[in-house]
Amino acid sequence: MVKVGYDWDVFVKTGLVFLYAKCGRLDDACKVFDEMPEKNAASWTAVISGYFESVKTSTISPRRKEVKMKPTVVQHV
User: Once rounded to an integer, what is the mean pLDDT over residues 41-70?
Assistant: First the structure.
């Protein structure tokens, strides 16, 4: 049996996980991730990155306020 569109389904849902995680909506990212019937390496990377960013920003933000640091804008050439 050939699953038509299966690769696209995983691709789209992984994109949603990544999008929600980057927007700080980790609960929504996890919901989409949990509902995926099968996960691939990109799916796992998206959700783990979301958790990492969530932890990183929650621990860095208060420190940045203490020392009055401003975010740096990086321009890619």
Answer: 70
Residue type (1 letter), 68? K
Q: Dig out the tokens for 69 from the structure.
A: 């640091």
Query: Which positions ≥6 away from 50 have C-beta within 8 Å?
Result: 17, 18, 20, 21, 22, 26, 29
pTM above 0.85? Answer: no
For residue 28 the two structure tokens come to 């929504």
Reported confidence tier of residue 76, pLDDT bands at 50, 70, 90: low
Q: What angle do CA 17, 62, 68 make, to 5 degrees?
A: 120
Does residue 45 contact residue 22 with C-beta atoms inside 8 Å? no
